[in-house]
């Protein structure tokens, strides 16, 4: 691999990431404000959340959102196989993590942070054999600190969801129930109501796009297509298996799991 070309690509991705951080920065207060927490989340889910009115910044953020996985991949690749290049590794690390955290706080939706954590676990095992022993120790140490921080943010978001709603439950009971909510939603809400599916729009919208099929290209369109069509809320998290069942039905999900 040509290191110079790799460095040039990294510089471009770092630039996109830092511009995205700059754009998200004024909005991170959304995730710290329990009063408007549910409102901000609802605006994001309905496609009405406006990040910036500047077309150039908006374009850069959109490009960055497509390249996020590449940034994470490059960061782990540098850590595993590129000696030296300390500042590239630091800046790629910031670029892989901070925009996602800021976006999570701006939109008051935790799914991107959850996917980031899953992605990092996959990349760790993918590149594990290339890490030096000292690098492995640092990764484990920093991952522990970062994991505690992310867990704290997740719990804080759960508490703010409780605080911003008209709930009569005890906060601790709410948090306990929240961890079991997706399983309960799957068992009670979805399993006996899968005669109507979301036809791949929940998980496979991008696949449908490249097959030139009609698809939900935004949260608003997804809501318009399925809000009154389904027998359950189209926003419920139904576990990862449940999300497949939502798209493919019971039989389709079994076939998909057996194939992939």
The overall average pLDDT, rounded, is 79
By DSSP, the count of extended strands is 0
Structural class: mainly alpha
State the end-to-end CA separation.
31 Å
Query: Which H/E pattern describes the elements?
Result: HHHHHHHHHH
Number of helices: 10
Radius of gyration from the alpha-carbon trace, in angstroms: 20 Å
- Indicate the low-confidence ranges by residue numbers: none
Summarize the biggest pleated sheet.
none
Helix content: over 70%
Strand content: under 5%
Task: Give the overall shape, derived from the CA principal axes.
Answer: globular
What does this structure look like?
The model has no long low-confidence stretch (mean pLDDT 79). This protein has ten helices and no strands. By secondary structure, the protein is mainly alpha-helical.
What would a concise description of this structure say?
The chain has ten helices and no strands.
Features of the shown structure:
about 260 residues; mainly alpha; globular
How does the SSE layout of this entry go?
Blueprint: H1 3-24, H2 37-45, H3 55-81, H4 86-107, H5 111-127, H6 133-164, H7 171-190, H8 205-210, H9 219-226, H10 240-259
